[in-house]
Structure formats: structure tokens, C-alpha cells
Write a structure and sequence with these properties.
64 residues; 62% helix; globular
Length: 64
């Protein structure tokens, strides 16, 4: 799935994060903090972009 990251590896990392969040029943706040931490790495700064966050939370079912 494309989460709006700028690279395939970025999308893979986000996909793995979503899978972990769903399996571990992580809260949206916990996932937000994980995205924030990931975005501190220059290679994945877009992890905090609105489109990425919206796609992550949508995949987690937060908007349902």
C-alpha cells in the first residue's frame, strides 16, 4: 500500500508500523508518537505529513 512516503522502503516501514499497531491494538496516540519519532530521521521526514498520517489512521480503522 502507498502511504504517501517518498520511497518504497518508507512505505514498507509505515506498512509494518500499521501491521504492528493493528496486531498490538496500539492507540492512535501511540502510533502518532511513532510517526513523530520516525520523522526525526531526515530520510523519513514525511512521516508526519498529513497524507501519511491520514492513510495510517485510515488503515488502522481510526476513522470508522
Amino acid at each position: 500500500m502507498n502511504y504517501g512516503m517518498y520511497s518504497d522502503i518508507g512505505n514498507t516501514i509505515i506498512h509494518d508500523l500499521v501491521n504492528l499497531a493493528n496486531k498490538a491494538l496500539l492507540s492512535d496516540r501511540a502510533v502518532y508518537a511513532m510517526l513523530e519519532a520516525l520523522a526525526k530521521d531526515e530520510m523519513y521526514a514525511e512521516a508526519m505529513d498529513t497524507v501519511v498520517r491520514e492513510r495510517v489512521f485510515d488503515a488502522m480503522g481510526v476513522y470508522n
